[in-house]
Structures are given as structure tokens and as C-alpha cells.
Amino acid sequence: GQQVMQIPQYQHVQEGEDFTTYCNSSTTLSNIQWYKQRPGGHPVFLIQLVKSGEVKKQKRLTFQFGEAKKNSSLHITATQTTDVGTYFCADIANSGYALNFGKGTSLLVTP
Amino acid sequence: EPEVTQTPSHQVTQMGQEVILRCVPISNHLYFYWYRQILGQKVEFLVSFYNNEISEKSEIFDDQFSVERPDGSNFTLKIRSTKLEDSAMYFCASSTRWTARGEQYFGPGTRLTVT
Q1: Number of domains, chain A
Q2: What is the pLDDT of residue A2?
């Protein structure tokens, strides 16, 4: 399957600061999903992006899919301590059945 | 809200033993998956299952692994002869739609420790 690369691996911010994680692929992605995993928890679906250049918002979270469908980003405005966790992007394998996860970005927010 | 459940939450076994991890997917879901996550690493796809057969499996899912849906509710992952490197968190997931079209719902996981 395709490999999606995520950066940064870790991010430590003060509460109220913004945060962005990036997901990059060397090949065109059909679509991409984002998941959040709290410490000790399981992945929880956040969103799916399908269209080139798509931008979706969920409260303080903004998701983008690049025009070439080779990259995606998740931006959190004014982080809160509840945002702590690891954010994974996942692309869909060619077969359509498997999710290939990136290595994730671990976000730590200190009050 | 419906959720995926998994049992046990923690399994400790000796190398070479067989283990069965159990999952109850959300009742109206049609697609089922197993993933594993070694501590501190990314989530890795193992296998997907639809219509009572494997639809895709990864390189990790070798002959030591098997899956089964023995009845209308349970979905199991069997590891025939466990190795130390099988120690990981195993997540079951289910979805109503083909992954390309919908989200997957993950269970809380079973932590497998092989000693």
C-alpha cells in the first residue's frame, strides 16, 4: 500500500497556541481519513476528505486536502488540554479495504 | 451509541501458545477489521473481512493468524503459536461501508503480552 508520511512526530504547545500536523504522500491519494487516539485509547474517526482542494471544519479543527491530492493537513486553533493525543492520517489501500496509517503526530498541550 | 466491544482487555500468554481475541462489531455493520499497534508505534492493518471471507490481508497476517465469524455477532482473531513480537495492542474495527467510503469504528483493544 501507499506510505503516508506525517510531520512532526511530536508537538508540545501551550494551551491557546495553534497546532498543525501534515500528511504527505509521493503518490496521489484517492481519499484520506484522520483519526485521533487519546493516550491509552483507541483511534476515533475525525473526518474523511475526498475532493481535491477540499477544506472541512469541525469547530476548532480545520482539515485540508491538497490540490494534487498528495498531502493533507489538520490545523487546531487555540488548543485546549482536551486536544492531547496522537493524530493519525490514513490513506485507503488500492483495494479499498485497508487503511494505511501514518506514524502520527503526538500533541501535548500544557496549561 | 453503539460501540465495538473486545474481550479480554488484557491477555498474557506464553510463547508458543494459541490465543483467541474476541470482538463484537456494531450490529448492522458489514465490514470487519483487525489492526495491531505495537507500543508507541503506528496502527498497522492486519486483515479485513466481508461476507464471511477475507477481503484483504497484510504481510503481517501470515499462516499463524486466522479470523472467523462463528456466529452472527462475534468476530475472532486467532494466533496459532504466539511469538514475543506478537506483543501489541490489537484493535477490532467495523464499518457499514467499504473503507473508501466511510469511517471505521474501533473497539477499545486487547493488549496481548507474550512472555
Answers
A1: 1
A2: 60
